[in-house]
Each structure stands twice: as structure tokens, then as C-alpha cells.
Amino acid sequence: MAGQTSMDTSKSVGSLCGRDVLRPRLRAARMDGLPASRSRIAELPPSAINAFRCVASPNSIATSSSLLSRRPAMCGIFFSLSRASHVTPTASTELLLRHRGPDATGQHRVAIELDSACAVQEASPTRVHATFLSTVLALRGKEIVQQPLKDATTDSVLCWNGEAWSISGQAINGNDSQLVFARLLEACAGQSTASTCNVVELVSAVRGPYAFVFYDAPNKRVYYGRDCLGRRSLLRKDAADGTIVLSSVCDNVSGEAWAEVDADGIHVVDLLDVHTAYPLFSDKRIPHRRFDQDQDSEVSFTLPFPLMNCSISDKATLDFSVVDQLRTSLLESLQVRTEHVREAVASMDMDVPNHARVAVLFSGGLDCTILARLCHNLLPPSAPIDLLNVAFENPRIHSQLEPGTSPYELCPDRITGRSSHAELVDVCPGRTWRFVAINVPYSETQAHRLNVMTLMYPHNTEMDLSISFALYFASRGSGLVGASNNGKTEPYTTTAHVLLSGLGADELFGGYQRHDLAFARRGYSGLIEELELDFSRLGKRNLGRDDRVISDSSKEVRFPYLDEDFIALALRLPVTAKCDFGLAQEADSKDPILALEPAKRALRLLAWQLGMKKVASEKKRAIQFGARTAKMETGKTKGTYVLSK
């Protein structure tokens, strides 16, 4: 395109084998008002096919069908926009990005010429420099799809880190990044005034976790953002000279202030409006809104979630018909999060019988054990499932242990983990349930402290570190497994690159102690307010931190409870169908609805229905206390204490 020059460098390593798997994903019946089915993805229009053909090297991309058979799963993103010169990541930041995506690294630079009318004065620069860098972790595909994606016709560029499970209700089983790029190019092909609305409408139709940077070259606009739940990390730094830097992760060696990009809308930088905030760039946020919420702004990002059901019934609303709905929806969520892994592994050397395709971050608690149990219904009987259970040596607690006593086997999460593992083996005896005991000595915790603090930044409290330690070592997946029935163990590292997490269940179904307290103080209305507050804060809290910590091990974490359709179902249910604190527990009752405690009672009934009766009775325990990462040096340190390196 006239008015800009570009240069790109790339490096690709490794290859994976795959096949074209574009096929329908049928959806089971749901509650009234929720989607009843998912249709086969529509035939792509010619413009999208043409866009596919010019995304990368002509030698590596021949036809649309070959493109759809290649799927990069997780990426690291770096982007900078500067008036002075191209700004690239520091060597240490690029290394962190490569940890996220070890299979390929690509860089693309664009010098964007601005209209002279944009200059505030004659000395003002009329050129800005955009630098794009992406790293890729490929979980499937015959050839690795290089990022950033570039369109030869328009010079538009996309850095995409995520999983688009569907767009506008149409399932995607091919390469999601290329399909998203093709649709973005289509959205920007019309009048400039309409392109922003088209882009926002398209991105709001994507279901799945993502962070992205998209340069719309014809209209000279940069779009960036995260999915509405913040499941993928994206950080932002603003330099004194107006330079904008975005990155999935940073080393922060310069001590500059980085911040999480809020997951509350889509950002648009209009390069034709650079004079407005000179020397800064004009950055407009297009806000979110629930689909049944009034629209306050001219353009808004429509969320797939309804407002929370605030109705309060005098009659009990929780029964096994509700449990059946939750089971169906959660199975669908798990299916889409495991089927791509299954196909990837089937065409690789990893179809060796003892290789795990997925692993569960496994404390033995209710939420993660339900996921493990439902995976049994979806994965081939011969496929092992790894259960990653982490325990820490905590000198504050374990200093008085008798010689020969294991500090790890005394950790609460190790005890519940082994108990739930035994119940899984009992209920599903034909499956290989590989319990991976990840034991972390205090010396190893301290050796990795600085790296973990770098990854979790800009989060910087004692509680952040405690939780990050647990996720960091669990995601590495290296521990001990039982070698045979003789009681001996042997070292083992999981082969799974996809990890399943139970995060989100507490927020949706009232699993925290504060939910019980809110009901005790203000009844059902107080409980509903607390649940709404927890849900609304999901995208603003810790998912970006968790993504940075886990992805450093070249793993991708997936959250089945945070599936958009499952969330919509949970929000539509009345509060008494989820966690009826007004229905007192009767531990001796033969009716499980009464016998189980109120917190997350709907999920407890699901575990009961699945044959996991011990798991159904497990109490909630925070990860930092269950794994014993909290307060290693002194018991007086508060979780909100700000750390220094």
C-alpha cells in the first residue's frame, strides 16, 4: 500500500502433523432462551479465501483447505507504536515471549506515513513506527502458521493469542487465527466510518479466550484488547515520549510502570487523529455491555451474558433437572476444549498409549475433580489423564516434623488429592488416572522466586506470589508417579500441553465464605449482589497473572467453567438453584440436596450424580493454603503485603 513501508523477519522451528477437520459441533438442548444447537461453519466467502492465500508465505500456503488444517494454539504478543523509531522488546522480554511460544517467532515492522494535516506544527513527525512480534506454541497442524499474520493486499497485520471456538455461533475446527484475520479484513473493507462498528461486532461474536493487536492499514487504525473475562494476558506501558508498548509479558528491568489492559472493552488508536493528544496517541475505549442491558454509548461491545437472575422464590428451585442442564453444558465446554488436543495428538508421535493429551490442575477439590470425571466421558478409554498435584515444603509449618516424615504428604491438597484420585479410580476403573505428585522443596521455591515475581508482575503482593508459586510449579508438570503396585515411585513429566483449571466455579456458584456471610447479613439480595460483584470482577482480577505464570512452561490453561454458554446458563439460574444458603444442611439426610452443604450445592449434586460422593462433600480451600505456599517465612505477613525483589 502506498504511504507505508514494511519489513519482517521470522524464524520457525519444529513441525506438527494434522488434517483438515472442519466439521459441525452439535449443541444439546438448553434452557429456554439459550442456543439449542451449533451449526456447521458457513462456507467462507471469496474475499476471505483470498485473504487466506496472502496471509503468509505463498510457498507454505496453497489453498484454503490446507490453511484450515493448521492451528497455532497459544502465542506471545509484542507491539509498539512510536513516533521516534521502531521499539523492540528487550532480550529478556523476548525470551519470556519465546517461553510462551517456543515453536516459531516472527517480527514485522511498518513505517506508517501520516497525512501532513495530522501534524500539529511543521516540526511534528508525519511518520509513526509500528513493530509487531509474535511467538507461537503449535498444538496441531501439518505446518506451523507463522505470526504476525500479514495481508499482502492491504498491509494489515494481526497478532492473535487465543482460541476462537466459534464466531457468531459457527464452530471453528480449523485455523482460528487465519479465519479471524480474514473476517477482520472483510470488516474493514467498506467505508471507514463503518469499519470500527464492523470490527467491534466481529470481535464481540468470538467465543473463547484471546488477546490481540490488529492494524487496519487502509483506515490507519490499531485495535487491541482482551476477551471480556481476561483469560489471556496483555500488558501496556506508556513511555514519556508517547510510545505505546503492548506485551503478553514483560521483564520490567527498567522499572517503568506496566499495567494490565483492562478486559472491559476494545481499544482503538486512530492514527489519523494523532494531533488531538500530541505527543500521545489518541486511544478510545469501546465499552462492554450485557446483551440485555441498555446501550449507553454510540458503539459498544455486546457481551454474550445476560444480567444475573435476581428473582427469589419461596419454593426450592434446585433439583436434578438443573443438575442435568449443568452437566450437559459443562460436557460441551469440555468437549471443545479437549477435542482439538485429541486430534493434534492422534497425528503426532504422542499417540503412544502412555502419553497424556490433557492434564488437570488437581487439588482434589470439587471443581477440578468434576472436570477430571467428565473428561472420562469424552476422551478415548486408552488415553491417560494426568492429575497435577503440587505440595510445598513450608519451613514455618514443617520445621517441627519428626525425622522421616514427608512435609508434602501432610499438605491438605495432597491429602484431598490422593483421596479424590482413589475415588476416580474406583468410579472409573478402566481409565489410567496418573497422579503426579509435584513436591517442591523450600530451596527450589526460593531459587525460582525472582522469575515468578517477574511473570506475575504487575501483581506484586504476598498473596499473588503464594498463588503464582502453586501455578508455576504445577504447570511444569514434573513430579513423581507410582511405578507399579509395589509402592515405588519414579520421576515423570507430563506430556500434556493443555491444562484444565476449575477456576470460575466459586464465583458462579457461591463457593467462597464471603457468600455465606453475605447471606447471613443481608439475605438472598445480599448474596445476589455478592455473586454479581464476583462475576463482574472476573476480567479485572487475576486471570492475566495466571496466564503469564502458567504459559512460561509452554502450556495453555483452559477454563471450562468460564465457557460463555455455561456462564450464561449459570447467570440465568435463580440463586436458590446454585447455592441455597436458606436451605439448611442436614448431614444425616438421605436426600443429597439436604445432606450437602449449601455452598456450590448445584455442583456438589453434579459430583454426587457422577458417583463422586466423597468429592461432593469436600470443603473449599484456597490454593495457597492447600498447597502450603502461604506465609513461608513468617505467619504475620498479610496477603496484601507488597513485595520487593
Automatic annotation (TrEMBL):
Q: Which GO terms describe its molecular function?
A: asparagine synthase (glutamine-hydrolyzing) activity
GO BP annotation list: asparagine biosynthetic process
The UniProt record lists the Glutamine amidotransferase type-2 domain at 75-272
List the InterPro entries: Asn_synthase, Asn_synthetase_domain, GATase_2_dom, Ntn_hydrolases_N, Rossmann-like_a/b/a_fold
Q: Which UniProt keywords apply?
A: Amino-acid biosynthesis, Asparagine biosynthesis, Glutamine amidotransferase
Source superkingdom: Eukaryota
In Pfam terms, one family for this protein is Asn_synthase
Q: Which PANTHER family match?
A: ASPARAGINE SYNTHETASE DOMAIN-CONTAINING PROTEIN 1
Annotated protein name in UniProt: Glutamine amidotransferase type-2 domain-containing protein
Query: What species does this protein belong to?
Result: Cochliobolus heterostrophus (strain C4 / ATCC 48331 / race T)
